[in-house]
Design a protein that fits this description.
The structure is a homodimer. Chain A is α/β, with parallel strands linked by helices. Chain A is about 40% helix and about 15% strand. Chain A has 18 helices and 15 strands. In chain A, the strands form four sheets. A seven-stranded mixed β-sheet of chain A has the order 1-4-5-15-10-11-14, sandwiched between helices. Chain A has a four-stranded parallel β-sheet with strand order 8-7-6-9, with helices on both faces. The longest helix of chain A has 20 residues.
């Protein structure tokens, strides 16, 4: 049998120099974003006050399959990429499974996650356009850190609205983000109309991604030379994150492997959409038929319990409307939920693919997720982020199924990041204080009843 | 000009399968450890109650140049090694220097540092001998985390005595160490005679590595089936850490480079001794003459201001005596000093080499070190540990010298770890609260006057 090293790094001449735009190969395209004022598909002109122009173009382009990665972004990528594709030999041995488990590890950079893959081009394009500042939101803090890093590198001031409960659970994220000279504001805040309105309704709110997005967008459109950037959900983000999947596919080809199952955690879809891109391409073009699995928290179950409908991307209802799986833009997950994946919606691309049966979704309560995280840390020497641990949980369960059926499947999952800034959650888990609250049907119904009526 | 990739990973067939024992090539050997009871060189029988037998053998062997790395340790190494040798292109560009800067990055594992390189074999040998538990001390927490990881993997219960001020500054270290099922006790504690004696003298002491060592050793020798393990200073640790240098030398050979300067931070010497091993071998055997530089904190300056003398390795004076550069075993660095490198002494091997003129030493105050850390993080996307940042500071200063002289030197430094658990120190730096306290001559003299009299 051929020997496969534990870690596979692509040689320089096999590193992707283009991103892949999954929409180009979809026969049925995702529904377009709608302008909430007109109910019509958004245009470049609609998007330009919010996004930098090149990114707005990428957002709207559903036909060009490949985009060249700009040279300065390739240079930036080279500092921390290619990321390793790792064979989880020790985990396999521990699980006593005939399955082969691979994971693509994106945590080897200071932002601690895959988010840097989109932060770099977003900061680069903004700088190239002559913009003078950016705003964004961050949930678990990974995106905020990544964007702060990229903005510091390309020389752009940044303001980060951080979901309040994460801000409080992860005090050191602030110090990291400040190391890269960005300004950080817990959201909801009194610095915006959107934030003030949410605080007026519920002064004790723990915040949500949707709410932080409203504040960041409002600040961007009211500040000259400023634009808003987002770390997930958007088509442009999935485009940039395709580098994860392209590298994974190339590395698997190098070692003569192809995944039977591809598993990714899903919040807004940035990692999942990036990881699966080339495998979904194979599926769409009939070249292969891998089983593609989205894993989400039971506390914020947009794919497994949400509705496929037009909804706002933010709580303040100032963004365009997207057709996606959503829990309603007013949905705020329980504060006891650790880490990211707190978004009420899901990438429109992934939503469409899920709706059309190209992938499936599962959800887990968080104590099951942390069990998997600790087991993984002990076997593989990497302390995973809670978000990534959703994918670990599903991969372990698939490997256990293989043990039972005797099938030697090849499993690939995305290890999106490290858990160094999630130690409060790990502490709660060790103390047995993990709360597995799951929203009731009534709660979801109440939130979904607020969907825009024309959806 | 030949293109050199940003990150160089050794292919599997070039990964070292042996450790290198620097002492074998030293014509003048380091002075032996002495039994404080007899004043005579320690024997295997003296060491066996404290250390596991194979490790005690390695400690005493100053003639065997290469030791095979046991197969299970090689398997463990494969999970996170080889570590990358990284060309700091962005830092070079920022500094506008003709120098070529390389760094060996050891932070890509959950312990966050190079410490895992010695933790793995120490846990493995202890398990192989049939021991049932281990004790250790940890300063900044990196060693404690690494050993907890290794003990969890090889199946050995562990108790970690953590220097009290680090325990308080780095609350999340506890959560990580507990993830790997180890027990963690702030030192000095009331669980040992040594701890109680120190607390009786000074109930408000912030602790020191020397004191934590006393407690860990006492617990080991009074518990059946238990031994003590140490993450630095000892010859066995330098032996295991030689994997850093061997990989670096091999990677540099692959790209046709050889360092003019090799720079490492120095606390007890584990990283420095490992990194320089093959380059010092070249120097000892006349094959090359690189400039080898130890960098230490001005607040704990054992090489630059200490004395070369026999001293205890611990504060409680229960360990063997080592001939080394020391500030006196009672020396406790200012609590305002961030991170590790708090040890009063220095590896006897490195002390001897320094004493004989084979290397030089410099020291920096911590605000200069954090300036370098932030600059590095912004340019290279890695948030460095405060310890590692001492080496960064020195490397930057050497690169600036090159800019001034026009010399295109090749600089290699050790980036021992990441700073994710040092955010309190980074916060203090951002707030301008960094205290650059340096011990006065009188303070050092008072501590050195307590050296054992026969030294």
């Amino acid at each position: 049998m051929k020997h496969i090293p534990n870690r596979i790094y692509l040689p320089e001449d096999r590193i992707p120099r283009q991103w892949y735009n999954l929409r180009a190969d979809m026969k049925e395209k995702p529904e377009p974003l709608l302008n909430p004022a007109t109910g019509k598909p958004v245009t470049l002109a609609d998007l330009e006050p919010v996004f930098c122009t090149e990114l707005a173009r990428q957002e709207l382009d559903d036909t060009t399959p490949y985009f060249d990665i700009p040279e300065p972004v390739l240079e930036f990528y080279k500092m921390y990429r290619p990321s390793p594709l790792i064979r989880a030999y020790q985990l396999e041995k521990y699980l006593d499974t005939p399955a082969k488990i691979y994971y693509k590890f994106e945590g080897n950079n200071t932002s601690g996650s895959h988010k840097l893959n989109s932060a770099a081009p977003q900061a680069y394009y903004a700088k190239a356009q002559g913009l003078t500042s950016l705003t964004t939101e961050t949930g678990a803090g990974q995106w905020g850190t990544a964007l702060a890093e990229a903005c510091s590198f390309f020389g752009l001031p940044l303001t980060v609205y951080m979901v309040k409960c994460s801000y409080e659970q992860k005090p050191f994220r602030k110090a990291v983000i400040e190391t890269f000279d960005a300004k950080i504001i817990p959201s909801p805040s009194s610095t915006t109309n959107a934030g003030r309105a949410i605080l007026a309704k519920d002064p004790n709110t723990t915040g949500s991604l949707g709410c932080a997005i409203s504040e960041a967008v409002e600040t961007a459109v009211t500040t000259p030379g400023c634009r808003y950037v987002l770390g997930s959900v958007l088509n442009q983000v999935l485009l940039h994150q395709s580098v994860i999947g392209l590298e994974s596919a190339e590395a698997m080809e190098m070692i003569g492997e192809y995944p039977d199952i591809v598993i990714g955690c899903a919040g807004g879809g940035s990692n999942l959409g990036g990881l699966i891109a080339p495998f979904m391409r194979d599926k769409l073009t009939g070249k292969a038929d891998p089983d593609i699995v989205a894993v989400e928290p039971a506390s914020c179950p947009s794919l497994t319990r949400g509705r496929y409908a037009y909804d706002f991307c933010d709580t303040g209802k100032i963004t365009p409307l997207a057709k996606m799986y959503t829990l309603g833009s007013g949905f705020i997950p329980s504060a006891s939920h650790a880490g990211g994946l707190r978004y009420h919606g899901m990438s429109p691309v992934l939503s469409k693919l899920y709706h059309d049966g190209y992938m499936r979704a599962v959800s887990y309560e968080q104590s099951k997720v942390f069990e998997a995280a600790v087991l993984f840390a002990k076997q593989e020497t990497i302390l995973p982020a809670p978000e990534s641990s959703h994918a670990i949980r599903a991969a372990i369960d698939e490997a256990i199924k293989c043990r039972e059926t005797g099938q030697a499947k090849t499993i690939l999952f995305g290890l999106t990041g490290t858990g160094y800034f999630d130690m409060t959650a790990y502490e709660n888990f060790h103390k047995g204080n993990m709360n597995d609250y799951v929203p009731t049907d009534e709660e979801l119904e109440a939130s979904l009843s607020q969907l825009p009526t024309f959806s």
